[in-house]
């Protein structure tokens, strides 16, 4: 089930034999398996025969950056990553077993995310580009959040959506009108270390009840964009938000700005899946 070249390369890299492999349902993008090594360690393997294999190399870098922030968030350790001669990328990480939340789990998660966001940088962006889903995510550093949001988040996705006909060219004018208002809308904040793709499908509570985050698209950004995305598909538990607020309060009026930040994931979803996501984008920008 695991392509042979992937298996061979992993065995060489970790200097162990893969004893067993069981397919697990992966995310929306990659194939995944739970594998057991000689020494009994269980690992989570993702691979993809058709996507850009650099995807996994930068995913490892992102996970390591999140780990280096040293919060109480559980982040899987990476054992190895690479690509085979035929261009299949793979990532082998520690397997973490999903459990149930305990009474303080969501609260601790909110506090820990706030602590992650207290890790600041001089500029928005990152020293390398990465991926959001399977789409490229440009992180060219910028000192100004509004410029970064327009140049690195809105424009590449908007161009992709109009080039493919998923959004009409009239939408571009609405975006331009919105851009002019952004300096008065976004509150000044220093660049915060973000997971970058934090929705309900990219975290779970492990067997100890600790929030475990994975599959990141890390960069230094305005922390409100991260929180806005947590609200987009159903929201996180309410005590997650209250603990976040207690630890690192947001500027007033965040709920009015939420939709603007969520243009980014909605544009990404428009480009990946089309359909109603494009209409949601149009509904938000037409208000400007
Ligand atoms: P994709 O990149 O394809 O979206 P994910 O990294 O989101 O894949 O993983 C898919 C699913 O596998 C997750 O929703 C989660 O349930 C599970 N998962 C992710 N990482 C681990 C891990 N380290 N250990 C165990 N299960 C994991």
Layout of secondary structure:
Layout: H1 4-14, E1 18-24, E2 31-37, E3 42-48, H2 54-68, E4 78-83, E5 89-94, H3 105-117, E6 130-132, E7 135-137, H4 145-163, H5 169-185, E8 192-194, E9 203-205, E10 211-213, E11 219-221, H6 223-232, H7 238-247, H8 254-261, H9 263-273, H10 276-285
Antiparallel strand pairs: 1-2, 2-3, 3-5, 4-5, 6-7, 8-11, 9-10
Helix pairs in contact: 3-7, 4-5, 4-9, 6-8, 9-10
Bound molecules: adenosine-5'-diphosphate.
Overview features:
288 residues, alpha+beta, Phosphorylase Kinase, domain 1, Aminoglycoside 3'-phosphotransferase, Chain: A, domain 2, 2 domains, 5-stranded antiparallel sheet, two-stranded antiparallel sheet, 10 helices, 11 strands, 43% helix, globular, binds adenosine-5'-diphosphate
Strand content: 15-25%
CATH architecture of the largest domain: Alpha-Beta Complex
Structural class: alpha+beta
Q: Under the CATH scheme, which class of the largest domain?
A: Alpha Beta
Low-confidence stretches: none
Using the alpha-carbon principal axes, give the shape.
Answer: globular
What is the number of domains?
Answer: 2
Overall radius of gyration: 20 Å
Main sheet makeup: 5 strands, antiparallel
CATH topology term of the largest domain:
Aminoglycoside 3'-phosphotransferase, Chain: A, domain 2
Number of helices: 10
The share of residues in helices is 40-55%
Strand order of the largest sheet: 1-2-3-5-4
User: How many individual β-strands?
Assistant: 11
Question: By CATH's scheme, which homologous superfamily of the largest domain applies?
Answer: Aminoglycoside phosphotransferase (APH), C-terminal lobe
N-to-C CA distance: 51 Å
**What is the ordering of alpha helices and beta strands?**
HEEEHEEHEEHHEEEEHHHHH
Bound ions, cofactors and other small molecules, one mention each = adenosine-5'-diphosphate
């Amino acid at each position: 089930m695991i392509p042979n070249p992937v298996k061979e390369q992993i065995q060489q890299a970790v200097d162990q034999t893969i004893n067993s492999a069981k397919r697990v349902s992966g995310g929306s993008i990659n194939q995944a398996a739970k594998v057991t090594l000689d020494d009994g360690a269980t690992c989570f393997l993702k691979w993809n025969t058709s996507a850009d294999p650099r995807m996994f190399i930068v995913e490892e870098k992102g996970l390591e950056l999140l780990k280096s922030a040293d919060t109480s968030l559980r982040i899987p350790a990476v054992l190895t990553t690479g690509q085979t001669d035929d261009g299949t990328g793979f990532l082998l990480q520690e397997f973490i077993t999903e459990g149930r939340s305990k009474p303080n789990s969501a609260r601790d998660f909110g506090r820990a995310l706030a602590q992650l966001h207290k890790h600041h940088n001089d500029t928005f962006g990152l020293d390398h580009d990465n991926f959001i889903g399977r789409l490229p995510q440009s992180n060219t550093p910028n000192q100004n959040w509004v410029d970064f949001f327009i140049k690195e988040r809105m424009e590449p996705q908007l161009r992709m959506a109009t080039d493919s006909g998923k959004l009409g060219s009239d939408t571009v004018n609405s975006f331009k009108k919105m851009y002019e208002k952004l300096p008065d809308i976004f509150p000044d904040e220093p660049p915060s270390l973000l997971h970058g793709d934090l929705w309900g499908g990219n975290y779970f509570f492990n067997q100890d009840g600790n929030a475990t985050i994975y599959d990141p698209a890390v960069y230094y950004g305005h922390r409100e964009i991260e929180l806005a995305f947590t609200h987009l598909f159903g929201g996180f538990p309410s005590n997650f938000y209250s603990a976040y607020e207690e630890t690192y309060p947001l500027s007033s009026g965040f709920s009015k700005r939420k939709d603007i930040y969520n243009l980014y994931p909605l544009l990404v979803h428009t480009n990946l899946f089309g359909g109603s996501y494009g209409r949601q984008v149009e509904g938000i920008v037409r208000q400007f």
